[in-house]
Amino acid sequence: MSTSEDKAPEPSGGLPVIHLSQLLRAPVVARSGEDVGRVEDVIVRLRGADEYPLVTGIVAGVGGRDVFIGSQSIHEFAPDRIVLAKNKINLRGFERREGEVLLRADVLGHRLIDVAAVELVRAYDVELEDTGAGWALVRLDTRRPARFFGLIKRSGGHAPRDWKAFEPLIGHARSDDLRRHWGRVGGFKPAEIADLLEDADKGEVGEILDRVESDPELEADVFEDLMPAAQRTKVITLMGFNPESAGGLMNVDFVSCASSTTAGTALALIADARTIQPEALIKMHVLDEDKHLAGVVSVIALLQAQPGESVGTLMDSDPVCVTADADLTDIALLMADFNLYSIPVVDDQDRVLGVVTVDDVLEATIPEDWRRREPAPRPVREILPSEADRNAPVPGGEAT
After folding, report:
1. I need a surface site. Which of 4, 11, 123, 250 has the fewest CB within 10 A?
2. Is the pLDDT of residue 110 over 80?
């Protein structure tokens, strides 16, 4: 397989095509025909906004290790297997190099910017094509796979779109250095960038802002003229913290009330908070007149109380909380030790900055490859006659 760094030619009809979903977990086969491992990921190298990224190799699972196999060591790419050029492989571990992107870890299931529509779309599959100068990433499938009784239905076909139509948001610094110079996001209108930020999660916000920070005038227009004050504060707050700290993990939207608020009113406030992450609504945060955290009360306690009972009599006045610089490990240990589903994040004066939920912690701690795995199929259960059928009276006799 060629590893030429020359620009790949434009895709044309009839060229061999493979979908990433066909390759993942496919066997890696030695030239002799012996299975030596499984495909865990496919590596491409970014080269510019107007060029298709070339495949430079794969990450293979071999004997419990992630091993790099370069394109020059691959004899054949096929939908159901990778055939090596030799019977032996180098067991060196994989280390990402400048400009390299892992299609499973960085693209599959992630969102990208549709440049023409200026909106965030999700990649559900990746289409590779043998261009003649090497295999290249040429198209994305942005259509959600059909589901059948909760299982992904793979026979629904693809809706591939040209890779060049998208701006990837990968979250990897060494590839970001290359992508920030493509300049396509800087060509959007401030209102369009503001809309993207409204829809983006914390990681996506960071990447989008990286694209506009080199243009102070554009950045000012986005923040000052177009974004609502609440959203502007939210974005600036999140961007000021390490992504693996409480400040970087927290959701800045939460529900709060005064200690004199009744249980019935507190429940109504929670019910009306439809735009807040559900996990952040597990507890009501009780604030004093100066907006300091006075306590927390669980939704269960509110439901079990009389509607007219004050929140102050129900709350835990010494709640577990963390500062914004608390790291991920400390937060996870606190949640485990105190059986917590959420923890308020406070500043030095005990004012609530946001809430870290157990979902936030799990997302940050569970390995990427585990989260990207295919869902296990639902178990098939043999349908037996119902108890009523088995116990129905037998004509001429008693029930069995």
Report:
1. 4
2. yes
Among 359, 309, 307, smallest CA distance to 332 is for 359
The answer, yes or no, to whether residue 298 has pLDDT greater than 80, is yes
| Gap between the Cα atoms of 255 and 69, Å rounded | 51
DSSP 293-360: EEEEEEHHHHHHS-TTSBHHHHSBSS---EETT-BHHHHHHHHHHHT-SEEEEE-TT-BEEEEEEHHH
Tell me the CA distances in angstroms from 2 to 51, 54, 122, 334, 367, one per residue in order: 17, 10, 30, 52, 32
- CA-based nearest residue to 114, from 185, 21, 183: 185
Contacts of 105 by beta carbon, 8 Å cutoff, 6+ apart: 41, 368, 369, 372
- The model carries a pTM of 0.57
Distance of alpha carbon 6 from alpha carbon 213, whole angstroms: 32
Cα dihedral 268/349/345/271 (nearest 10): 0
pLDDT in tens, 165-179: 998 887 655 566 666
Residue 4 pLDDT greater than 50, yes or no: no
Check residues 258 and 90 and name the one with the higher pLDDT. 258
Task: Give percent above pLDDT 70 in the chain.
Answer: 77
